[in-house]
Amino acid sequence: MYQVIDGKRISQEIKDELKAKVAAMKAQGEERCLAVIQVGSDPASGVYVNNKKKACAYIGIESIAYELPEETTEEALIGIIGELNERKDVNGILVQLPLPEHIHEERVLLAIAPEKDVDGFHPVNVGNLSIGRPGYVSCTPAGVIQLLKRSGIRIEGKECVVLGRSNIVGKPMAMLLLRENGTVTVCHSRTKNLKEITKRADILVVAIGKPKFVDESYVKEGAVVIDVGIHRNENNKLCGDVDFERVAPHTSAITPVPGGVGPMTIAMLMSNCVQ
Ligand code: NAP
User: Fold this and answer.
1) pLDDT tens digits, 109-163
2) What's the CA gap between 9 and 132, in Å, rounded?
3) Test site for ligand 1: of 121, 166, 198, 242, most ligand atoms within 8 A of the Cβ
């Protein structure tokens, strides 16, 4: 029988630990404050921003929300980031992606001071991760590590395969698994004999952005499968990059969608803010 890794429970556990930590910090006169900037009114971004504000309120982190109009210029946005970089009372700055097309995403993310980059996207933080120095780590892959550790799954010495090499998930995921002493292979759209590689995995992390792409033919019997993907199907129901029904019986542990990796991203963002 396989274990369904409960991201909802584990993320709640982390948020409760953070809440206690923030209360103790407050007692010492130390506050935490996150600035969240949204440009335009993309409904999905609106939901994410709201969830972040709610999580801050739960944990005791103050949040400042900037809801800027679609036509905001890149210069104006970078100007606001510059002011927030200088403010001593603001510890974290987050710019909700995607940005409108006329704004250059990379220039904006580079404008955030690395020590306030709670999303872990700034090249300084990415570099720190790759050379094993402390720094902020991208929230979704950091959440995957917590899911594994808190489910009693050892990474050390394991054959780990990451399916996907994006800057926000696949690459930092590979670095984190390496840091935990896994033996890591990264696959992407040009990988040959994909199934041969994924079938070697003791731990398979899937982040390719294709609904139900991975079926049982990609998975070794007894593997741990982590599904980062998130999609809405034709019936408006959420599903992942993994075909859960077909794959789960062949695993020793697997994350569901929803309720797996998804809730961990916000919990790790909050953890970065408290850090
Ligand atoms: P992405 O930027 O689109 O990257 C997808 C990766 O998959 C790329 O590296 C691509 O290879 C690879 N790929 C695509 N098709 C492939 C194929 N047929 N065979 C092998 N590799 C293939 O996606 P992402 O931002 O990493 O996100 C991945 C998924 O995770 C999405 O469903 C996204 O919605 C979800 N996500 C969830 C959370 C969360 O909080 N749960 C957070 C972030 C993302 P190339 O590099 O060669 O193109």
Assistant:
1) 999 999 999 999 999 999 999 999 999 999 999 999 999 999 999 999 999 999 9
2) 29
3) 166
Q: Torsion angle, CA of 260/263/265/270, rounded to 10 degrees?
A: -140
Q: List all residues whose CB is within 6 A of at least one atom of ligand 1.
A: 140, 163-166, 168-170, 187-191, 194, 207-210, 228-231, 241, 261-262, 265
Q: What is the structure's pLDDT at 233?
A: 85
- pLDDT at position 44: 86
Residue 132 identity: G
Report phi then psi at 134, rounded to 5.
Answer: -65, 150
Q: According to DSSP H, which parts of 131-207 are helical?
A: 139-150, 170-179, 194-198
Active site (annotated) includes residue 119: yes
CA of residue 163 to ligand 1 center, whole Å:
8
Please state at what angle helix 7-27 crosses helix 139-150, rounded to 10 degrees.
Answer: 100
Beta bridge partners of 62: 33
List of the chain residues with pLDDT < 50: none
Side chain identity at residue 237, one-letter code? K
CA-nearest residue for atom 36, ligand 1, is 229
* 153: its two tokens: 């799954």
Tokens (6 digits) for 268: 């790790």
CB atoms within 10 A of CB 159: 16
- Helix ranges, the chain (H): 7-27, 43-59, 74-86, 105-111, 123-130, 139-150, 170-179, 194-198, 244-247, 262-274
- Write down the pTM of the prediction: 0.97
**What tokens does 43 get?**
């409904």
